Amino acid sequence: MSADLLLKLPAEASGLEPALACDLRVCNPGAVFALPELSLGLTPVAVGIRRLPTLIGLGRAKEMILFQHRLDAFQAWNWGLVAHKG
């Protein structure tokens, strides 16, 4: 089964989970991607931290999670998180 997703709103925390599960991710120029759970004193959801490294690489996934790095549409595209930004 294939699932595609068009992101128009910020995909943060549990909102990023469905995007990570999709085969194809497309976003608009104002999209934002983040896993801010640590800044809220929460543990990141296991599904997100397990899938993210396969999409953007282990080093970038660690940077995004541990340093609370928010990706804009261009950086998400540059890192391989989305296939198209537009």
TrEMBL record:
Q: Which Pfam families match?
A: ECH_1
GO molecular function, one example? catalytic activity
This protein's superkingdom? Bacteria
Q: Which CDD domains match?
A: crotonase-like
Q: What InterPro entries does the entry give?
A: ClpP/crotonase-like_dom_sf, Enoyl-CoA_hydra/iso
Biological process terms from the Gene Ontology for this record are: fatty acid beta-oxidation
Q: Which PANTHER family match?
A: ENOYL-COA HYDRATASE, MITOCHONDRIAL, ENOYL-COA HYDRATASE-RELATED
What's the name of the protein? Enoyl-CoA hydratase
Native species of this protein?
Pandoraea cepalis
